[in-house]
Amino acid sequence: MGDLRERLLPNSASAVDLGDASYGPSASSRQPFQGFVDVLGLKKRGQGLRSWIRVDAATGDSQNIEADKFTVMRRCDLPARDLRLLDPLFVYPSTILGREKAIVVNLEQIRCIITADEVLLLNSIDSYVLQYVVELQRRLKAQGAGEVWQSQGSYSNRSRGSRNFGDISGNSSADYLPFEFKALEVALEAACTFLDTQAAELEIEAYPLLDELTSTISTINLERVRRLKSRLVAVTRRVQKVRDEIEQLMDDDGDMAEMYLTEKKRRMESFSSGEQSMMGYRSTDGVQSVSAPVSPVSSLPDGWKLEKTLSMARSRHDSMRSSESAKQNIEEMEMLLEAYFVVIDSTLNKLTSLKEYIDDTEDLINIQLDNVRNQLIQFELLLTTATFVVAMCGVVAGIFGMNFPITLFDSPSAFNWVLLITGVIGAIIFCSFLWFFKRRRVMPF
Fold first, then answer.
1. What Cα–Cα distance (Å) separates residue 169 from each residue in 173, 325, 328?
2. pLDDT at site 38
3. How far is CA 125 from CA 34, 43, 131, 132, 342, in A?
């Protein structure tokens, strides 16, 4: 991981500069990011440059580049508000946006722009970002090796005169996915894995703490549970947002069809090649009409009729094929989203179960506290009753303590009889109160 971080993080030696000769046409046949012009000049003028990790769709190689947001906007044909979602200085909820030439993904730590040819990922030292790059490279290289192996197998099958279902369908593999789907799948997998890891950590920490709280109710344990519940609410909100975003995409066929960038690129290339061939046909037809001798019946209307018939047939065929492929691609995208919808929904169920367990623990604690409070009230009631009885004895003692003559004071055993009668009367009154409390079910005996 350390070597990968050194290779992916920007520095003076690894950052791509378009002024360098190694990044010119001699380095590769295809120049990525031709819109980046004079990066050093922009840096001198104080423009806001950001470090990006670029993963090529054809080779799976990654490289560090520096570009400002206007260059990225021109390259990916994105508005400024979409790039604002990727700004690390702002906190935006998880979002997946399908545009004409790109898919903007903001899922937890993964903030990237996916096109049909490349992935632009905001450079970061986060482990999940590095794992995203490694996993995407691994899948792209595995796909390249699989295509080579399948091409060799198809060649051997053709040499034996056999045909399989993959040859009929036109795909080299039944599990074939376009590049943007693979990149989106890795991003969804990284986000779901990150959220599921946080949910698992909360579970590991929560259950022993809640069990300890039920046995020992203290201020320290209550404070720890309060912090745990705050973290749980924050993680649940993030998981719920990712789940809602995936569900919203699944409910909208237009958004899913908009994300098939490879298909749109192929249609655009076929359309441009068709236009070029049509222009060549017209120019050739015009030369022949000038150079060849014309008959009394002109051949120009027949050529236009043939051209119109061919164009109508081609457009009809393209529309049928595009509708079928769009339906198939929507099904592929829907199956992809359904798989990770199940994963994120399972994570949400874990968090919901944990929240219910916390709520049940709080209810149990409240019941225990209510029970203790009721016991204190019962004890206070008994104490109040005993105080009332003792107060009656005090009233009798106060009466006999007054300074007035009475014949009862002349007898030496009179005070003993007063104490005995007062104690018996007080005990009878106290027992009467207890019987009344039991009859009214105020106190269990």
1. 9, 12, 12
2. 43
3. 27, 22, 11, 12, 29
Nearest to 282 by CA among 298, 315, 316, 306: 306
What pTM value is reported for the model? 0.66
Count CB-CB contacts under 10 A for residue 426.
18
Residues 282-316 pLDDT 10s: 555 544 444 444 434 344 455 544 555 555 555 55
Return the CA Rg of the chain: 41
Strand partners, 128: none
Nearest one of 31, 52, 206, 55 to 118, comparing CA atoms: 55
Structure tokens at 39: 């990066």
**CA 240: distance to chain centroid?**
8
Q: Are strands 49-56 and 95-98 parallel, antiparallel or unpaired?
A: unpaired
Residue with tokens 């030369």: 287
Q: What gap in Å lies between CA 67 and CA 316, rounded to an integer?
A: 43
- Cβ 83 vs Cβ 73: under 8 Å: yes
- In 3D space, the residue among 126, 115, 271, 56 whose CA is nearest the CA of residue 107 turns out to be 126
Please enumerate in sequence order all residues whose Cβ is within 8 A of that of 98, keeping only pairs 6 or more positions apart, or say none.
255, 256, 258, 259
- How distant is the alpha carbon of residue 378 from its chain centre? 53
Phi (first) and psi of residue 111, to 5 degrees:
-130, 110
Whether the pLDDT of residue 320 is over 80: the answer is no
For the record, the structure tokens of 275 come out as 């236009």
What are the tokens at 79? 């508005």
